Amino acid sequence: RNASLVRRRRECIQCGRKFTTQERVEEMPLIVIKNTDISEPFNRNKLRESIVRACIKRSVQPETIERVVSEIENELQEYIMEVPTRTIVSKMLQKLLSIDAVAYIRYASVYYQYQDIETFLNELKEIKEKTAAETLQLQHTKS
């Protein structure tokens, strides 16, 4: 659990429906340095939407997406004021690979803009090898 997150539950006295909100401590604003050297404020919603787009029609639960967004955001707090886009993308791809390899490939293909099918196939091969190695490691851990 995130210690800087406060969860509140309320019930509407008129309709009886329950509502949950999550509040977080406002941190120093983080500035994202784009690949074009343009800077912009970190946008949690933009990160979430990128992950949602990569996970469309996959069996990734909304709670999982929200957890991944929160994990990435928490990891970015180690950066004092500025963080390069490539760092965010790297963290995002790492998380996507752990939850859904197809979502990883979708995002990577857009971000890296593969110029030819050979490069894309090499990436697929690397993903397959990584996931096979992780599966093998999990099997040895359980034994």
Describe this protein's structure.
This protein has 143 residues and is of the alpha+beta class. The chain has a domain at 27-113. It is built from 5 helices and 5 strands, in the order ββββααβααα. The strands form 2 sheets. The chain has a 3-stranded mixed beta sheet. A two-stranded antiparallel ribbon has the order 1-2. It is globular, with a radius of gyration of 18 Å. The model has no long low-confidence stretch (mean pLDDT 87).
From N to C, what is the helix and strand string?
A: EEEEHHEHHH
Shape: globular
Radius of gyration from the alpha-carbon trace, in angstroms: 18 Å
Overall pLDDT confidence: 87
Query: Mind describing the biggest β-sheet?
Result: 3 strands, mixed
In percent, how helical is the residue content?
55-70%
- First-to-last CA distance: 29 Å
Measured by DSSP, the beta-strand proportion falls in: 15-25%
Name the structural class: alpha+beta
The low-confidence parts are: none
* Number of strand elements: 5
Strand order across the largest sheet? 4-3-5
- Tally of helical runs: 5
Summarize the structure.
The chain is of the alpha+beta class. The chain has a domain at 27-113.
Descriptive key words:
143 residues, alpha+beta, 3-stranded mixed beta sheet, 55% helix, single chain, two-stranded antiparallel sheet, 5 helices, globular, 5 strands
Task: Indicate the topology.
Elements: E1 5-11, E2 18-24, E3 31-33, E4 39-41, H1 44-54, H2 62-76, E5 82-84, H3 85-99, H4 101-112, H5 117-142
Parallel strand pairs: 3-5
Antiparallel strand pairs: 1-2, 3-4
